[in-house]
Amino acid sequence: MNSIGTPPGSAPPPALLEVGGLGVEVVGPEPFSAVRNVDLTLAPGESLALVGESGSGKTVTASAIAGLLPPALTATGSIRFDGKELIGMPAHQRREIAGRQIGFVFQEPMSALHPILTVGKQISEALDAHFDLSRAQRRDRIAELLDLVGLGGGRDIARCRIGQLSGGMRQRVMIAMAISCRPRLLIADEPTTALDVTLQKQVMDLVTGLQRQLGLALILITHDLAVVSETCERVAVMYAGEIVETGPTRAILRNPRHEYTQALIEAIPRIGDTRRRLPTVAATAPNLRDERAVPADRRTASGLVREAPEHWVRRDSAGSR
Amino acid sequence: MLSYIGKRLLTLLPTVLVPVIVVFVIIRLAPGDPAAQILGDQATPEQVADLRRQLGLDASLLAQFGAFLKRLVTLDLGESLFLHAPVRDLIPGYAAVTLEIGLLSLVLSIGLGMAVGMLAAFRRGHWDGRIGSGIGIVGISVPQFWIGLLLVVLLAVQLPLFPVSGYRPWSEGVGPHLQSIFLPALTLALAQLGIVSRLVSSSISDVLNEPFVTTARSLGVRPRRIRVRHVMRVVSVEILTVVGLLLATVLSGSVVVENIFGIPGMGRLLFDAVGRRDYDVIQGVVLFVGLFIIVVNLVVDLLYAVVDPRVRYGKGAP
């Protein structure tokens, strides 16, 4: 199972996260797969961007990794975190990883934070779930965390409720909660989408700064390729529940091989752009090449084909549902 | 804040007058009047007419209402023709009994309703959860006089834990007093239990879908702690808003319950006054209950701002 996530030929670094053949099925009267054949690997401290349009399965993939799938969704395949298989793990063991090992930053801090509990109490909830801290230790840790996310000094944010904070401050609080137990993996699900444009860069810089400072592995979910180029070492492009292309950020951005990735990059507006109309991404990505044309030794179980040492592209039934 | 309270009270005053006017008119349209009641069957029509004139009941409806308002301005609610005491002095004694039972029933109904509602929502699909939602439906469907009589049969006749009826004041000892008010309060509470538990369980179901619950799960917070600290915290604020409504139904329920259990409270006073066409008592009680409900709702609104920081009354507030 381990080899699925790591393309053959590359020396696998000790992986923190290894996702192999992940599928997420929607159970119910009309069952279907929200996500299929997802392979991902992430070394400690490494950053990966999960890119794709709404509905491509980015958030579902991240939720499966964090163990936050709603009851109607079930995950199949393998998610190994630090060598331990997460799929099928009993809930109480899973809870020891949630928050402690994997932190999650949600898209909408306003609804993702508790409306009545104060900021300090909410951060305490995370700390108390994993540590046995004295009152003073807890207070110091909260102050330290708020300082870390740029909310230290001035008014005492710990005593505030989220209604009293601005959008940017709320997302900083969200980040403080996510990193409160010093997790090894941070998953940020479009952390800046709900924010003002002027704040987006600040919050992104905070996330990447913390990632480097604390040595976190990062999965950044976004549809903004411009953000990706500055923040992540590797990119996985998702389309219709599958990864269609994955590789180092530079390679993907400079030399996109999958038509969908090319369309996404085309759609980025640039300064000095003289196009009157920005291109839009076509609704369906066609097969680029017949699967039979790819030599078997360059294919993986999930249908990704190696283009360059670290650059993989889907060549089979892309876009088919 | 103070100006907000003042404004609210001013806008609410007309609301109190509406039920008073309705009651004022209806009791006078109903057959029979105090004069006939006082004089009994033997009286001649001339005697009745005489007394009516003395009591001012021969005047037009509008004139009578004018006189009523005029007295009201000086806080004079008139006099009971049968109890021979000013209504203003009568009400507090009866109201104290009713409010004591009402408060006890409120505590019981919210406590039991929370428990049953939590069972129904958190154990949905399990056998105990089904019992919880079953209790809710039964509670809504069954009339309170039936519940009251059932409780009397079970807890006063079969198992003589409580007196069948009658009221014992504090002066006769704390134990006997509480015993005498427990069954009436429980009857009132069980009548509310259905509504409260359904409200609690639907509120819980809503809150469980809130993103902040997922956030708590992402942090590894234990499910029980999520329920108690994250979910119920929000639910209890929502329940607070219905306390005012519950109190209103408790007061109207007291008419039935106080008659079943022979409790000398406001419900009993009102019931007897209607039977005797004791106009001033009826009007006085309706006015008092109306005022009381409005004040309670105002207090609930203000409390709401205290427990839920999302609500702040200020310039923009209604």
UniProtKB/TrEMBL annotation, chain B:
Keywords, sorted A to Z: Cell membrane, Membrane, Transmembrane, Transmembrane helix, Transport
Family designation: Belongs to the binding-protein-dependent transport system permease family.
PANTHER family on file: DIPEPTIDE TRANSPORT SYSTEM PERMEASE PROTEIN DPPB-RELATED
Location in or out of the cell: Cell membrane
PROSITE patterns: ABC_TM1 (PS50928)
Topology with respect to the bilayer: Multi-pass membrane protein
Protein name: Peptide ABC transporter
Residues that span the membrane, as ranges: 12-30, 101-122, 134-161, 181-200, 234-261, 281-307
Biological source species: Micromonospora endophytica
GO cellular component, one term: plasma membrane
